[in-house]
Design brief:
two-stranded antiparallel sheet, 48% helix, alpha/beta, 5-stranded parallel β-sheet, 9 helices
Length: 200
């Protein structure tokens, strides 16, 4: 209702109260058969808390894909508009818990903490505009590193293709850039299209 990624207490995101909800969600997801839990909220300590509750309930093989590097980015615009969170968020900001887009050192720090807490995979979001971060994370930690080509990145390319400004092959090129930077997997709105092209 407020567009934020956590529980609000006294007009602020409460990290610890949010983690309590996240662990309940993670356990429920595991019980329902999920193989991978992917928290994207950016609360500190949530990977360790989720790993602890999963292990306590014998879900040792359920993996954690941490959105370890999630920047406070303007590239989320189309998605936020589509789900209504932009309107709910209003003039508020997620900058208190998402990363400053100018900061690479924090990305390395956050990824390291999440890996230490038990993350099996780390995510960089957005992706295409942050390939230096992808390369730095993969080089530093050598863990499975995923990239999320977010709505704004995808929309810019797709609209340019539709208007004839760019060739349709630019979409695959953008994803290949993610792969070259070190991504082991890519989340993209173009997945179905690209899979069809690669299999044709």
């Amino acid at each position: 209702s407020h567009g934020h990624d956590g529980i609000i207490v006294k007009n602020k995101i409460d990290n610890d109260e949010t983690i309590k909800i996240l662990t309940k969600q993670a356990l429920l997801n595991a019980k329902m058969g999920c193989d991978v839990i992917a928290p994207s909220d950016m609360m500190d300590g949530r990977v360790g808390a989720i790993r602890k509750v999963l292990d306590a309930n014998k879900f040792y093989d359920v993996s954690i894909l941490s959105y370890a590097i999630k920047y406070a980015s303007s590239f989320y615009g189309p998605f936020r508009d589509a789900v209504g969170s932009a309107a709910n968020l209003g003039k508020a900001s997620k900058k208190t818990y998402q990363m400053n887009f100018a900061n690479l050192d924090e990305a390395l720090h956050e990824a390291g903490m999440d890996i230490e807490e038990g993350a099996d995979i780390v995510m960089v979001k957005p992706g295409t505009a942050y390939l230096d971060v992808v390369h730095a994370i993969k080089s530093a930690f050598q863990v499975p590193t995923f990239v999320y080509q977010v709505s704004g990145e995808y929309s810019m390319l797709q609209l340019s293709i539709e208007k004839g400004w760019l060739d349709k092959d630019v979409m695959l090129e953008s994803l290949m850039c993610c792969k070259r930077a070190g991504a082991d997997a890519i989340l993209t709105y173009a997945a179905k299209q690209i899979a069809s092209e690669l299999n044709s």
